[in-house]
Amino acid sequence: MYDLIGDIHGHADELKALLTKMGYRQEQECWRHSQRQVIFLGDFVDRGPRQVETVAIARAMVEQGRALAVMGNHEFNAVAWAIPHTQRPGNYLRPHNTKNRSQHRAYLEQVGEGSPLHREHIAWFKTLPLYLELPGLRVVHACWHPQHMAVLAPWLERQGCMLPDAWVTLTIPGTAAFAAAETLLKGLEIELPEGRLFHDKDNHPRRHIRTRWWSNQARTYRDLALVPAEMMERIPHESVPVGILPGYDGQKPLFVGHYWLNGTPAPLTEHIACLDYSVAAKHSGKLCAYRWQGEHRLQAEHFCWVER
Ligand SMILES: [Mn+2]
Questions:
Q1: How remote is the CA of residue 70 from the centroid of ligand 1, in Å?
Q2: Going residue by residue through the chain (308 aa), what tens digit of pLDDT does each one get?
Q3: Cα–ligand 1 centroid distance for 9 (angstroms)
Q4: CB-based contact 64:30 (threshold 8 Å)
Q5: How far is the CA of 7 from the centre of ligand 1 (A)?
Q6: Which CATH code of 3.50.50.60, 3.60.21.10, 2.60.120.650, 3.30.450.20 fits the domain covering 2-160+248-307?
Q7: Which of 151, 185, 213, 263 has its CA at 20 to 30 Å from residue 145's CA atom?
Q8: Which residues surround ligand 1, an ion (CB under 5 A)?
Q9: What is the pTM of this model?
Q10: CA nearest 181: which of 169, 197, 165?
Q11: What is the C-alpha to C-alpha distance for residues 142 and 70, in angstroms, rounded to an integer?
Q12: Which residue, among 254, 278, 269, has the nearest Cα to 300 in the 3D structure?
């Protein structure tokens, strides 16, 4: 059975505390449990103070068969940052501009940009699948979207990780494959009606909202927006176009990270749990897990977390 762990973002101390709380012990450089395995939901790096140690713990567990893991948008970006752009010498698949560098700076400083360890990390990130479909459950960093998964199929190996040739296509905006990878890793964003925008917490104008993509009834932009409560009023209360959301079939429980939730961890729906409880947020947060016992219907009592 599996213990699923949400976005860690370099908070290795909280990761060790959470593993300890769940009965894992460190032996010979690897955390293990006699009966259970971990599934990491991605976003190991960026932001936090101990990113190298976080990757070391997760990687050792994966390599020794004690854990599975999927890719988060931060690992995807880290790989794209490190791959030279063959058509534009001196450039990279993810542009080294000020905004992208500031998002990635803590990681680059901790790992040593261009160091052998950095290259090892990138090689390991490339092995992470974009999603996992296991016998009793599903795992993806942000959005389970069967249509986009079909678009991505030609770019993935059987184990779900990206083929070497896929990186160029999946990092260049404008293709269906790019949109598909973005959606799985960052969630489904929809554009507001023509001419509408809202200002986010940093007062940046936004034309797109993150959505509760799993909702099975098309309703209004405000109903579907996944924004902090205090921003909700800025989202228009107009109907969304029919068919814009994939919904979720509920055939198996689904675990995601990514959404920076607050409050007491609980399932989003009967069949979907988000385990990102903002461990890397400015003031406080939690590192959150779900201790799955094979159930189809998720249970609030199976969440387990440590405070930062
Ligand atoms: Mn994320």
A1: 11
A2: 999 999 999 999 999 999 999 999 999 999 999 999 999 999 999 999 999 999 999 999 999 999 999 999 999 999 999 999 988 889 999 999 999 999 999 999 999 999 999 999 999 999 999 999 999 999 999 999 999 999 999 999 988 999 999 999 999 889 999 999 999 999 999 999 888 888 877 788 889 999 999 988 768 999 999 887 888 888 998 998 888 889 999 999 999 999 999 999 999 999 999 999 999 998 889 999 999 999 999 999 999 999 99
A3: 9
A4: yes
A5: 7
A6: 3.60.21.10
A7: 263
A8: 43, 72-73, 258
A9: 0.95
A10: 169
A11: 11
A12: 269
Kindly give the distance from the C-alpha atom of residue 298 to the centroid of ligand 1, in angstroms, as a whole number.
22
Question: Domain map of the chain by residue range?
Answer: 2-160+248-307
Q: Which of 244, 296, 246 is nearest to 267 (CA)?
A: 296
Q: How far is the CA of 69 from the centre of ligand 1 (A)?
A: 14
Whose tokens are 């939730």? That residue is 261
Structure tokens at 123: 């090689």
Pair of tokens at residue 67: 């854990």
DSSP H or E run through 122: helix 116-126
How far apart (Å, rounded) are the C-alpha atoms in residues 232 and 200? 10
In residues, how long is the chain? 308
Q: What is the DSSP letter of 44?
A: -
